[in-house]
Amino acid sequence: MQAKKRYLILLSAGACLVLLFYLGGVQLPAATRSRHDRSRHGYRPDQPWPHFSDPLHLFLPWDQTDTEEYNLHISPRQKRDVNTSVYRGKRCRMDSCFDFSQCQKNGFKVYVYPQQKGEKISESYQNILSTIEGSRFYTSDPGQACLFILSLDTLDRDQLSPQYVHNLKTKVQNLPLWNDGRNHLIFNLYSGTWPDYTEDLGFDIGQAMLAKASISTENFRPNFDVSIPLFSKEHLRTGGERGFLKYNSIPPFRKYMLVFKGKRYLTGIGSDTRNALHHVHNAEDVVLLTTCKHGKDWQKHKDARCDKDNAEYDKYDYKEMLHNSTFCLVPRGRRLGSFRFLEALQAACVPVMLSNGWELPFSEIIDWNTAAVIGDERLLLQIPTTVRSIHQDKILSLRQQTQFLWEAYFSSVEKIVLTTLEIIQDRVLEHGSRSSLMWNSHPGGLLALPQYSGYLGDFPFYYATLGIKPYPKFTAVIHAVSPLVSQSQPILKLLVAVAKSQYCAQIIVLWNCDKPLPAKHRWPATSVPVIVIEGENKVMSSRFLPYETIVTDAVLSLDEDTVLSTTEVDFAFTVWQSFPERIVGYPARSHFWDSNKERWGYTSKWTNDYSMVLTGAAIYHRYYHYLYTNYLPTSLKGMVDQLANCEDILMNFLVSAVTKLPPIKVTQKKQYKETMMGQSSRASRWADPDHFAQRQTCMNKFASWFGAMPLVHSQMRLDPILFKDQVSILRKKYRDIERL
C-alpha cells in the first residue's frame, strides 16, 4: 500500500513538472541560445516579469508589445524598462552618464570629429555640422571639448533609405574618443523601417545623448536626451523665413476652423488615426483630407474609400488651407513626428497634436500649452467640439506664441541645433541656466544669455513683466581716436554738454588713439565722474566691450566729433526710457535692395524712412555690449576691426535681429549731417573716400551671416510735445531743440 502511494506521488510530481515546463514557468539553465535571444529582446534579470493573461503568448517580441491588450497589464514605467532593445543605457542621466569635469575646466566647448574619406554625408547633416563649427561653442581641440559630435551621418537610420550609412556600429566603436558614447551627442531624424518603424538606430549608442525627432515618451530619457522637430532637407540652414502672421485680426477666426491634408496609410503602424479622420470631416469649416495615392503599389491595397478620398483631396490647395485656418491638425504618421508640425507653426495655424506618446520638440524648455492644443487619438470625435470651445482671446494668444516659437527656435537648422546645444549647456552649467520665462518669452533663450546676469531686471526685455523701470541715469561712452591738441576740439565741447544732463551718471572716454593719454588737467572739470580707458588693441570693436565700469542700464554712445546739446541728450534719454530694448538716437541711415546688382545697398540720403540709427549719437541698453562681444562671430568683429568701419551697422543688425523692430529716430537739427561731414580731422572716418564702399560690403557680409536682412524700415520720428506748434516757446519743455 505504501509503495503504491509513493508511485502515485512520484507520478503526480512528474506530471506537474511537465506542465510547468510546457507553460514556461521554469527556466532550464542549459538553454544558452535562449539567453542570447532574451538579451536581444530586452530581457534583464533584474527586470520585473510582466503579467500576461494568456500563458501561450508569454514570449512577445518587444515591438509587438505596443498593443491594447498588452498596455492593459503593464504600467508606462514597466513598459519603458521592458523595451530595452531600442538602445542600451536607458537609465542614463546627466549625473550617471556624463563627465562634467572637462566642462568645468574649459567651459562648454563642442568638438566635431574630422570627416572621414569616402563617407557620404547628407545635406541636412552637413548643415548641422556647419552650424556647430560656425558657432561660439566650437573647438578644434578635442582636449578642450565638453561635448563630441560624430562626423558619421546618423540622421537617417531607415535601412530602405538611400541615405542609410552601413556598418555604422563598427565605425563608431573604432572612434578613438568614443569612450562608450560618454559626452557624445547623436542627431537623428528617422529610425526604424517598414513595417514597425521602431526607434532602434541600428547600433549601440552606449552612454551617448540623443537629439532625436519623433522620440516617444517611453524611450525619452528626461534631462538627458533632447527631442527635436522633424525637418525636411529644404529647411533653411541659417536665418529662416519669418512667420506668416502679418497682423492680428480681431476676432482671430479664419475661413476654416480645423484642417489637415496628407497621406492615409491603409495598413501598418500609424494607419488607425488617419483612417478615422473622415468621421470628423464636414467639408465646411472642418476639412480633413487624406489620400491613399502614394507608394508604388497603392492600388493593390486601396479600400472602398480611396477613390472618393482622392477626388476630394485634389479639390483643395494645401497652402491656401494652411493660411486660412485657425487650427491645423497634426496627426502622427508612420512615426510620431510629422512635417505638418513646423508647417503649422510658421503659418500661425495653432497645432492640434494628435500623436499619443510623442515627446514634443524641446519639451524640456518650451511650454507647449501656450502654443498648441494637445489632443488624444482615442478622443478624435471630440476634437472639433474642443477647438470650437476655445475663447478668441486664447486663440490670439496661441497664435502669437506660434510665431514667437517658430522664429526663435525652429525657422532654420541653425536655430534647431543651437537650441539643442544651449539646452545641454544649461544642464552642464546649472548655476547659469535660463528660466522658463527666458525660454518662453521674447526674444527667447538663444538671445538672452544667462552668463550676463541671473537677474531678469538686468536685461532690456523684461521690465514690463517684472513691473519695474530701467535705472533713470545713463553712462556716456565717447569714442576718441584723435589726439587732444586744442581746447576747442569738439570732444571737449561734447563732454561738457553731456555732463550737464540731469540724467548723466558718468562719462567714459574710450581712448583708441595711437598717441599717449592726455594728462588729467587737459580734461574739463565736470559735475560727474570722467573715466578715461585705453582701448583694447585700439580696435573699433572695443567700443562695444562690456566694461565693468558701465554701471547704468543705458549707454549713450558718442563719436568724438558728435555735436549735441544738453537738451538733445535729455530728450533722447527720455524717449529711450519708454523703449529700453531699442536703439534711440539722432543720425539715421537706411538700406535698400539693389535689383540691378542683386545685393543690399546702403544710403545716407535724407528720405521718408530709415532702418538704422548710427551709434555715433545713440542710446541703447548695456546688454547689447555683452551680446555684441559674446554672441557675434569673430569673423564679423574681425572685419569691423580690419576696416575700422561698420561697427555701428553691425550693432544695428544685432539689435534689430533681437527685437524684430526698427530703431527710433528723435528730432535733431538739420545741420547735423553737414556738421559731421565737415569735420576736418584726418582721423575722421567721414573723410575716407572708401568709407561708403566699405559700408556697402559690410551690409552684405552681415546679412549673409544673419541668414536674412534683420533691419526693419520705419517712418516714425519722435519729437517733443508742442514741437513747432504755434504756442509760446516758454510753454515748451525742450525749447532749445527748436532753436537749433
Chart the SSEs and their pairings.
Blueprint: H1 2-23, H2 32-40, H3 68-71, H4 76-82, H5 94-97, H6 101-106, E1 110-112, H7 123-133, E2 147-149, E3 156-157, H8 168-173, E4 184-188, E5 190-191, E6 209-212, E7 226-227, E8 256-263, H9 271-275, E9 286-291, H10 298-301, H11 306-313, H12 318-323, E10 325-331, H13 340-346, E11 350-354, E12 373-374, H14 383-388, H15 392-410, H16 413-428, H17 436-440, H18 463-466, E13 474-480, H19 490-499, E14 504-511, E15 530-534, E16 554-559, H20 566-576, E17 584-585, E18 588-594, E19 599-603, E20 612-613, E21 617-621, H21 623-630, H22 634-643, H23 647-659, E22 664-666, H24 672-677, H25 691-706, E23 717-718, H26 735-739
Parallel strand pairs: 1-2, 2-4, 3-5, 4-6, 6-7, 8-9, 8-10, 10-11, 11-12, 13-14, 13-16, 14-15, 17-22, 22-23
Antiparallel strand pairs: 16-21, 17-21, 18-19, 18-20
Helix pairs in contact: 7-16, 13-15, 22-25, 23-25
